[in-house]
């Protein structure tokens, strides 16, 4: 049974229980956060590094966690920000930014030995890479992670209405891409 977030936060405040609290936090959220990050940047090693950065940043600020949002959405916000910062740094080194980033990540899907998806999953991932970052994030969180719009709103700091519109536009673009793609 997974520990309650309140229990993790309680243990994090006790000097002799901090390591236990950190281990519980990582055990509870590492897989979900890893896949959230991995869907955005594709590459396993980069996702692994960003996951570690996320936990280190979260742990460094856990004493300042106010509880305005759930621990889950707070961690997702940190992971999302870490991932977006990483993507932006990568883009700085690319000539045509979005197009180059899309091509680079698309090539990673084809060559990554850790990508276990079939051909349809590869095509879906490539469709997602063609979306603007915000639409891709919203689609991933709603479709793959089954997050509520309210939770996504807490993570991204965007209104529920705007998120619904982003998700709708993402779905329409994916449908159009798949319909127009030659198989």
Automatic annotation (TrEMBL):
Superkingdom of source: Bacteria
PROSITE patterns per the UniProt record, alphabetical: SIGMA70_ECF
Domain RNA polymerase sigma-70 region: 25-91
Keyword set, alphabetical order: DNA-binding, Sigma factor, Transcription, Transcription regulation
GO biological process: DNA-templated transcription initiation
A family per Pfam: Sigma70_r4_2
An example molecular function term from Gene Ontology annotations: sigma factor activity
Protein name per Swiss-Prot or TrEMBL: RNA polymerase sigma factor
